[in-house]
């Protein structure tokens, strides 16, 4: 049965490089997924979850331009299909193969689109995609803060990484749509806010609050404001590159994924430095800002919290985030899904993967021994309580998702044919996207 509201989790597949590119931080390996993938899928089903953010390890799969090793993806994606779990295919999660180098490489966008097309061709039953995860964060951590991959720290390096990352995402959407015309793209992007802590910090905070939108502005073909246009031009983007984003629009196939953690809000000092602010506005207020800007259906695509010394911190955070989701929904914003990220605990995210310490980050629905945490029990109960209520009492859209078992059915073929027509007629596409039926 097609879910009317997308309750999801994810299996963490970050894989950036650190230490000048010498060390690959492979979270699938650190968290034991390569050996325990079948058990992990059992755990997803045990929670009552039908949608999973999941992707193959890009550095092990994409061996060279046009050359792939699909062996691990074949067994895992075929098992997801057998279980009728709908993957949101997460194709690039903070890292690229060694032969690409890093996000400063201008060849990355076109080559990544070829990889995305190859994936979609091999697994045509997959409908949901996040081609490039958290584009803004990926560019900032790699090229503005100097933490990952190219480990640069300048505005010019940031703009270079950002334009290549977003262009890769845009080209990948186009390539996937050539194979699967009814593909739906869920942009998992960090939703940020910068608070000025005194009047002298207002100007810096305003710049940061404009810059946070750059990845989605470019991705959705929205004209940036004049200050950000100058920022892009001053730091290496050409007019031709800017107009590429204005002319390639796949917005009618998109759901805006908003990620929110307690670390997403920042205090800005007069000198332009920032420090964590904790939860000030919260998911509801910040998501309304993003929705007002882009007017797309919304999905809460990531959140978590450490279990903590009292053992109930993650459970309380889950309740708070769900209350925010309901507040967004009741305000009339079409919110279509919620995600606790990730299925299991993670490793070394306490230092944002900058250090190889092997420390467990206790944010999973299960621990790394695959024992359920209190937040896992709470999420399972939340799903059971709300699954039947939301379809009849929600103002959200019903996303036209085809489950793996639907692939190649008459109904699915008809939807793909309609989507192919819509891709050439934006007005038809908008009407189909806003449909409340499946």
Automatic annotation (TrEMBL):
GO BP annotations listed: carbohydrate metabolic process
One Pfam family recorded for the sequence: Glyco_hydro_1
Keywords: Hydrolase
InterPro entries: GH, Glyco_hydro_1, Glycosyl_Hydrolase_39
Chain spans, region Disordered: 407-438
GO molecular function, a single term: hydrolase activity, hydrolyzing O-glycosyl compounds
Feature: compositional bias, Low complexity: 422-438
PANTHER family: ALPHA-L-IDURONIDASE, BETA-XYLOSIDASE-LIKE PROTEIN-RELATED
Protein name (Swiss-Prot/TrEMBL): Family 1 glycosylhydrolase
Species classification: Bacteria, Pseudomonadati, Pseudomonadota, Gammaproteobacteria, Lysobacterales
